[in-house]
Amino acid sequence: MTTKLGFRFGYALLGASLGAFGLACTAAVAAEQITFVSQGGAYQQAQTVAILDPSAKKLGITINQDSIPDAWPAIKTQVGSGKPIWDVVDTPTGYCLRGGEQGLIEKLDFSKIPNAAAMPEAYRNPYSVSYEFYSSVLAFSQKTYPKDAPNSWADFWDVKKFPGRRALRNHPIATLEAALMADGVAPDKLYPLDVDRAFKKLEEIKPSITVWWTSGAQSAQLLNDGEVDMEMAWNGRVSAVAKEGAKVAFTYNQGILQSTSLCILKGAPNLETAVKFLNEAVDPVHQANLPLNIDYGPGNPKAFDTGVIKPERAAQLPSEPANAAKQALMSYAWWSSPAGEAAEKRWAAFMQK
Amino acid sequence: MLALVSPALLVILLLIVLPVGWLAWQSIYHDGFTLEHYRRILSEDIYWRSFALTFEISLLVTVLALVLGYPVAYAANAVPKAWSFVILALVVLPFWTSVLVRAYAWLALLQRTGVINQFLRYIDVIGEPLALVHNTFGTVVATVHILLPFMVLPLYATMQKIPNDLMQAGASLGAGPALTFFRVFLPLSLPGVLAGSTMVFVLCLGFYITPELLGGGRTVMVSMLVSRNVELYNQFGAASAVAVVLLLSVLLIFFVVSRFISLDRVLGQK
Fold this sequence. Notes:
Oligomer: heterodimer
Radius of gyration of chain A: 24 Å
Number of strands of chain A: 11
Shape of chain A: globular
Helix content of chain B: over 70%
Largest sheet of chain A: 11 strands, mixed
Strand content of chain A: 15-25%
């Protein structure tokens, strides 16, 4: 009898605790949350401090983080499986656009994202909004070129005036733009790209390219070790190497201004919260905090008006208005058009010839 | 019996049969049945080039690994036990280091400001640094180093089983050391040669990190085609088709090898 009662009592306790656990679960669901995905490393740490933590606090939501160097294949498989687990992704703008066209990315309602609606139109598209800017710049060794350093893509192509070993990225994006600027096309007249002309110009420099790099780390190491004398590289990578004492520098002149953007996966589990977060993430003050933590420029140019970024610091950033004016703004719309995709495919053949 | 084996079969089903089946399916299905991806592999120049380059490099790496590995295995077999332990340890130790680390180590050795070039310049053998890396040469050097244990270990295992009496019998019949080696030892070690070569060749076919880091972007092996198709062009079908072709080539190689030698030997069981 007593044992039986004991059992009953036990079951009752178990039931009660299960019930409480269930309640706790619903409570956790009720508190809003999103899963945010970025590229990891120092970059994701910087944005956590500058943007993610303050946004979570202000909105009263939980931001779960995940990181992946290249989100694109994962986006495709997640949405393709019908049950995405991520909400917001920070990824190169071209992927947001292409994903939008393929039905993998939610179309944005800018009336719910006032911070983004206030940004210049060139910095957003129906599927995403610019989150941070970086630039593909001409970087060089100050040991090889102590004075009269190369200052334009025409100089990069001029192997007589600037002898030395060179590297370019093993990717058509930004490389074709550089080739056209070397051939005399003005930075604001690049699009639609004259692909034939660009590849013709690339054939010219091809024999002088020592390395076609594939990762940012590799490009930094090439310059740092003196393996090449000049190369196309991302501004943040060059300044990181310079900070460690390497005699290297770069110019924003004719740089190619690129961005990663925030976009929301189609059928994201926390769509509404994701939209709220997206608006908060491009808030000028949060955005202004980013370059205090890493060498990337804010995606929202209003960040420069907040007074948070000191003028000396602003002058170093790729998206600072005076620097941006010297550069070409990459057209992701062109790159995700059929012509852009064809140019990407042509790259593989160009490399292997 | 089946009940005992079924958990293992389940693991094989989940980890091998399903993914590979899905890969094959993806390569022929895109909004309906299509052989488009295979047609492209056959008709587009870059695929041919990559496959040809991959087989060439694999062959070269296999030959070099054999030339370098055979004496090592022979020495490990001929010297006293304690020394053979040292030799084998030296072969196996780097084997436990990450491939990525070893690739970067070769970069540090071979690059323009690397140890080798600086030393050669210091002793005034060369004026300008040699281009030792960011080309096929660098790729082959590092790949041989990484795959060498896969050559040495099967060779050593085979050589160990060659009875010493046979060598003595040869000597007693008047053959010198060279003749005994070529007439007796070498033929008996051939199964090891075949096993090691198959391992190295097949592993080399799928190499990715080494050519990516040391090839300078020009040494485009098949595995890089797979990754580029996924990352750059978002062509999962094309990537799958390339992977399937690579897998079939490997199976074909194993099939041919199995006509000459039991596959158990190649895959390391005795």
